[in-house]
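Re: your question from the hallway

Yes, I did run it. Sequences:
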Amino acid sequence: MKHLLSFVLFSCVMFLNMAQDKGVLSGGFQSESQFYRSDDKIAATSPDESIGSNNYFKLDYTFGDFKFGVRYEAYMPPILGYPTDFEGRGIANRFASYQTDFLNVTVGNFYEQFGSGMILRAYEERLLGIDNSIEGINVKLSPVSGIDLTMLAGNQREYFEIGDGTVRGFDAGFDINELAGSDWKTRVRLEGSFVSKFEEYTGPDSQIEEDVRSYSGRIKLNRSNWDLNSEYVEKDVDPGASNLFNTQRKGRAFLTNINLYKKGFGFSTTFRRIENMDFRSERNASQTNLWINYLPAETRQHGYLLPNIYPYAVQLNGEIGGQVSISYLVSKKSSLGGKYGTRLALNYSRFNKLKKSESASAEDNFDSEFFQFSDTLLYSDFNFEIEKKVSKNLKFVLNYIQMNYNKFEIEGVPSENVKSQIAVVEMLYKPGNRRSLRTELQHLSTKQDKENWAGFLVEYSMAPKWSFHFFDQYNYGYIDKVHYYQTGFSYTKNSSRLAISYGRQRGGLICVGGVCRNVPSATGLSMSLSTSFSQ
Amino acid sequence: MITNQIFKVLLCISLLMYSLSGQAQTGSVPKTELMSLNGDRVGAETILNKEGATVISFWATWCKPCILELNELNDLYENWNKESNVRIVAISIDDARSSSKVPSFVNSRGWEFDIFLDVNSDFKRALNINNIPHSLLVDKSGMIVWQHAGYVPGDEEVLYDELLKLQK
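Structure:
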């Protein structure tokens, strides 16, 4: 059936493409390949085929209000770190849609997000091998200005198949100012969602429900220099592998963001609490498969190498905490600001386990205090950044980070908390004629886990086509004193980019948006090719 | 299995015919919904400059080369705007982890251009963009005339050259 749908869709694409002057054909290609070799120094073992290759080819055809698309994927075999179940090739995504100002209908595979995603988010993150697109039907309506409605139903992608559970969802958004015809300075928007999953159950446990429902309510307020967004989600009892088939506990999540800003200044704060919110469309789903909702880590996503040795992975069964960020641009006219201004930024985040309620019984739906932190720290991160442009051709960034990482809770391995201090100095020098030299010096010091690391990166670029780099992460404080080095180059021409590198990949958690996958250590040659086109 | 193989053959034939057809038609900005910083839903076509060219730059708060690029463009924006009436639009693909922080992030950097949110990467996907940063130049008729993947210092000079070509 899937092949038939792909066949029909692609026939349409091909037929319309023949009609010379009608519509727009666009697409993209991405290939990530790695050639492995064994490396005793980092305990990297080459797989039998010594190669991994992930490939994606996408074609879309737009014809007036209609759009058709297909995506072919080939994992021959998947690169290390990806689930081996991806191995194979075929059409992984196909869709047809019709879109006007009033109505948007999509059949086939689609991506969607309700609110912040805490109740539903179908999305793709290739770096981690996540694609939980829904195959079914999605209808969006705007019956009157100020009201947005979305209805969807379908099954989620799992590798080259679809999961057993059916997901149904409804989302409504109301722009109160628009509906009231008011000119209030404060904008008010109210939203709500309902999501259910249905999975047949034929086992003996009468407490396992086939239909699990969840509900979300949201309020968004904003004015010229502040905004507030808040969301509460509650989920029915949902026995599954992630909560050891608990038949009593419901799930709930609460998120509030407040931001204050004016030109040259930004303040942002977040509070979030999660309890039993691993929501998947199959009871036995594991790893990163078949997630219906999305709960990213509410911590700073660092852009340097060493701070990412200990990334926070969100604890879906329970966590409470928040984050505060303050940024200030020191004026160009002041002594500290100098000729080009100086940017100062401070960020702090902290998450603890939930505090168990002393009065809760085994029959209660919830067993923790709503606003109280337990004594078990999961993660904290204090960081400070100074960004200074000294001259037209020279710029510095200084970073100081203090982390406390509960390795036992986050990775599930015996360990004491890893307390680390990280310093980074980045320099960018532009000698002119479209040339640039960027360097990073980094140091991570800790007495726990693998102790101290030093990092060095140098990157020389010749715009717009060439860039060369070398970096090394040296774990000099540990027994083996390992260098995780890499060198390579990239060539870019318009929307096409080829990158080739050789070196070592440090094993551990790779995280994007706080969702993580454990990857093994590897040594070898990597090649990345990507392009996009439109005609 | 047979339909799968037929499909692959059709795919190859279609690609071959497409590549040989040599159509000169340029792609336009696809219909997609974005979100403004005050929460309004806006169509992607409405962000384009009808009076001149539009530069669309995809970025995220965690993407260091993106921020480097936007800092450079911000320094150049006033002069470029005077010379060519160009509009620069920055599309943030920050997801729920960091999208709420975009307004304070942008204000604290003093960026002057328009910012829109693409929280589930729908616009990025519709344009078949694989990675960020990624920049597009759209002419005043709404056609994409130039694209560039990635950013290294100096790329903004190439973009400026392309802008000048559009004025001729």
